[in-house]
Structures
1.
Amino acid sequence: MANDVSSPVSYLPGVLNCRGLEVGSAPDFGDAGRKDGIRRWGHTLLALYGPEKTDWLNRIRYLSVSNDVSGWSFSANGEVQFFEEQEQYTNRSIRERFTGEMLERYCRALGIELNDAEFYGPETYAIVRTGQTFRGAVSMSIAEARSRLPL
């Protein structure tokens, strides 16, 4: 079972007549050389949803840059927003077309202080899912993972 952020973030704008925002960012690093090494594929994601139907359900804008086995890829779909730094999308380096710093600026333009814990108030929680994983998966505590990754 994977985390599914897209479903509620895309569904609720239609019910509440508002916008929904899905964001994600992770640095690209890992120790793939070790048998028990951890590989974290980097990505940056922004998906903006609204109450009206669009060419893809109710998604207004989707931006993503991600790394996988085949390398870095970039995707931009939907209506370009006023805050976008479109000149970056043609950068020779695919991973630089949409960075974590850009994501933070884009969120700020939408009124969200992405990396400011005070913005979210005192009722903020981090959720950790534990349990069965797929065969071959490495399972460890957060403390173990932090000790093995450059966090």
Note: The first strand starts at residue 20 and ends at 26.
2.
Amino acid sequence: MPRINLLPWREELRKERQKNFLIAAGVAVLAGIAVIGAVNLVYSARIDHQQARNNLLTNEIKILDESIRESDGIERQKERLLARMEVIEELQRSRPEVVHLFDELTRTVPDGVTLDSVIQTDRAIRISGVAQSSTRVSSYMRNVNGSEWIGSPDLTKIETIDRGQSRERFSFTLTAVQRNPNVEEDEGVGQ
């Protein structure tokens, strides 16, 4: 007679396979979680590293911006100092001109002419005075025109102010230009 095994071996085999499958699935899930955690840690470390580099660059940029602002301030201060130096040099160069101007004013004034005021604006000179005759004013203008330091006289006003005792007196105003023969000679040489 044949032997028939009536034990539920298939059922046990199925339970064994199901148990092995659940263990394998659990191990796979745990391995997946471990891989995801490791990847997360790596990317987190990279992000932190990049943020630290960004912060370092930001701080260095701030330092450089401050240095640029300081160098701009120094550059502006340098320009102001150079402008002051140019003004001082110009004043030093023009210092003897005032002496020559007053010297020429006294040399060009003929007898019978007195000066009341001399006003200088830049290179323009306005001279006011009184003369005994209009010919003396003309003589004064010729003297100014022939001067090395004063030139281009232009009579702007002349009027009679006194007719007493048969002597007329004339008030006059003229403009002239201050010249510097040393500068004109230098400019002529350079051309």
Note: The helical segments are 9-108, 134-145, 181-190.
3.
Amino acid sequence: MSQVVSYGLKALGLSLVVMLSGMSSVFAHHSFTSTFSRNATVEVEGVVTAFNFRNPHVIIHLDATNDDGTVTNWMAEGASATGWRRSGWAADTLKPGDIMRIGGNASNDGSPMVWVREMAMLNTDGSMLADMTIIDTRGQPAEASDEEVAEVYTIPLTLPTGEPNFTGTTIQDFNIIPGGGRPSEPRFSYNAVGQPASDAYDPANDPQIFCDRPGLVRQGGSTAYGKKVAQYPDHVTIEYEEIGSKRAVFFGDELPKPGPRSNMGDSVARYEGDKLIIETVNLLPNPATRTGGPLSENARVTEVFSRADNPQFGSILKVDMTVVDPTYLTEPWTVTRYTLYAEDYVMIGNSCESPLRERPENAYQYTEFDLQFVN
């Protein structure tokens, strides 16, 4: 690690160090600072006991022997398996018995957890066998090459039955975003009721940290993972790689009636020209993004699916998601996502593990503040 100063402290028999160099936030699933420190880092050596190559985060469990001979099982948490797979990792890359050295961000509360920054496979004598550090290339523009460019992947604009074609799996590719860079989420315009809810949001209480499923706006509008759409005569299905959520939305002309609320709500779909439009109501009051953005249970969501194909990249899915929330917002909120159709893409399964700390009171699962607005 660059620019590291050791303070000679001991925690569970392991040296803690403080990193002075800057770090970028890499959490797509939940807020990084809710569990890990931006400043304190830790390095641990141990024997792998389990390797969970799943979304939303890769988890490595390893037994580390302390100075007094006792053994502590550590949890090393990394980014998504989808991202690690781009660097060549697979479910069988590690196996129980492998010896690893892992360095990264320490937990806020001193629990035996580390956010992975550097990794090395070790020999039995402690020498390095292989550097296993993940190189994150997300968002980097593709380099020019004199080699022949691979043929882009395209799908037909319409189904054989004439409807616009959105069937297939799409993945995030930051090169296809108009103007370049990473997608940004616009700010919410809160009213006098919504602003206190926004101010009260604490990332440490993020429901997804403790494996609660996200709401529709967060899952459909913020995810950078794979998304699979299938179209049928009377309905469409949408499957999300990040958490494994799946929706079945039937075609119809009327919004669902008020009823029990859920994370994905109740939806109805229709075609308008070359677009697929899905409207959703009866949502739980979940935060809209990993950094907050609480919405009330009166929020109504409209998703517009369209094609934004490009000769350089091939078939592209564009989704405009608009939220109207008369309880919390002064005006509609819209976020746009572009994802690239991928041939033979296999979505990685899901298995969430909560952090090694007590779950705090969750601020956005029907608190007394929210209940006063339930119909």
Note: The first helix runs from residue 81 to 86.
4.
Amino acid sequence: MPTTRRQFLETTLGVAATAALASPAASPYRIGITTNTRGGWENDVFLSFREAREAGYRNVESFLHYFTSYMDKPQELQKKIDEIGVRFVTISNDGTIDTHFEDPTRHEKIIEQHIQLVRFIKKFGCDHLKINSGARRETGTTAEDLKHIAAVLDEVGKRTNAEGLKFAIHAHMWSQIENRRETEFIMENTDPKQVWFVLDTGHITMAGMDPVALAKQLGHRIIEFHLKDVKPEYRGGARQRIVHHEPMTHPVFFPLGEGGVDFKGLMAHLENTAWRGWLTVELDSSPFKPPKESARISLRYLEDKLELSVT
């Protein structure tokens, strides 16, 4: 019996519906891992990439000092990461370039060096530049410092966007931008179209802030989360600042699941607001087990507890 047009359409639509139900929707999140973990990964970046890939990650984030010898031969670096089977989330600034954002006499050099970095990471398909500010001075960051920092971040952001990438500042313990006052000043005094934010759940918590509350406050101005955990007693924000950090003897950051960060609450907020972007696992040190094992612990937490697809 010949198939009627109606039967054909019903069959076709039924197959399509079944396929749609069988095929999960693409994840709104892109998941990576920062691999400069002290305790085994810090001195061999390609070992860290290989072991991260073996642990189940496909995207890696790193720092410029590992790749200065590749600045004029990016194709060689691309070949290496292709062979390992990973791609870059981004490559961050570090002490190899000027990070004295508080000093206006250095701004021209800062802008030039950061745009050179932008043009380098563009070659690897990165969609944003994440940066850290410089080391924190004993006197802290003054109101005048913050004005100068905001001014140069705006300019770097403007030029980064002109190159086709987004630009984001990462608040970090023991850096120029660490606490609530500094974070809020920078966000309030920079152009939201030029300067974005990387929210690090561990550093934000240890600086006395609740990462879930800050995510709600900053909303879609966040383009990347760094995911690390802390001890349960610091949940919602540490009450006292840790002055000296000894990551290989007394770590304050741990693989996901320690209990100090409300990751389920964070993911519920991201789902409710339809946030899209990078979720990057990070662990500053892994003194009691190999970094690869710590990376797997965090991956299992993402998959089993947060029901995220990493691979």
Note: Confidence is low (pLDDT under 50) at residues 1-24.
